[in-house]
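BACKBONE GEOMETRY TOKENS
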Amino acid sequence: MHQPLHEHPHPPHRGSHRLAILGGLALLLAAVAAWRSVVIVDQAEMVYITEFGRPVRLLTEPGLYSKWPHQSRRGFDRRLQFGAPPPREMLTKDKKNLEVAWYVGWRIADVERFLTTVRTPADASARLEDMVASVLAAELGGRDLADLVRVGDGSALGPLMAGVTTRVAEQARREYGLTVADVRLRRLNYPGEVREAVFEQIRSERRRVAAATRAEGESQARTIRSAADRERSRTVAEAEADAARLVGEGEAAATRIANEAHAADPAFYQFLKTLDTYRAALDNRTTLVLSAESAFLRLLTQGLPEAAQTPKPKPTPPPSPSVSASPEGGR
């Protein structure tokens, strides 16, 4: 048959265009396969290679690895993780209601067990929260509040938290493949609705103890002051008695010495006593008006008479000078 002039066969360039598209798709698939075959492991993580959800290989060392394109990569942070759940209310042995907050430090130890039990870090934190709450409530239920809040080495908080950490670590490793490094308290307090009432009771108790202590101190102070007053009175009396005795002994000794001196030379003794009397009676504001016959004037101008130098003369009374006060205010 004769073909119409307007009909033409398919142009040859359409087949080459299709081949180019298929080649590009093949290259793209090859690039995707190559990209999915490369596994990069960071130093802060470990990677599990899974095949349709089933663990195949664990990569723990940092570096560049390869896998099949159909296999998947699951990375897990190998660093220490910290969980700080919200506070919970718990009872002590003496039925004190407390608000307890804690934190847990943990890391993945057994990845295979971790994948078959909790699977994600969020689930692991939730399981650990329930586990710690159960163990901590049991430990607090066996301790009195006074033992927990005691200051110093007598506090039971240290041994209590060490026991909680040990029990939680054993259970977490056995059940979830986790290593629990530490469990510590962040806060231990009364619930908010009763906290002010408890604090007021504590303040009242402290005021009562302070008043009792002050009363006891004042009683002891009075006892000490009374004993000190008695001791002071006794000491003063003994000192006054000793002083009176010493004064008496001194006066007796002075009298004896004076008598011995008088007996040795009565005239010289009389002379010295006269000078002492004049020294006591006269000063720089006193003016003497003496007659020419005055014995005191003769004593000042002529000295001791010869008769006073003879041994043991009969003592005579000392002369009495005529003293007149000067207008300048002497006596």
Summary: The chain is about 50% helix and 20% strand. The first strand starts at residue 38 and ends at 41. The helical segments are 13-37, 111-117, 121-140, 145-148, 157-176, 192-264, 266-281, 295-302. The domain at 81-189 is CATH 3.30.479.30 (Tetrahydropterin Synthase; Chain A).
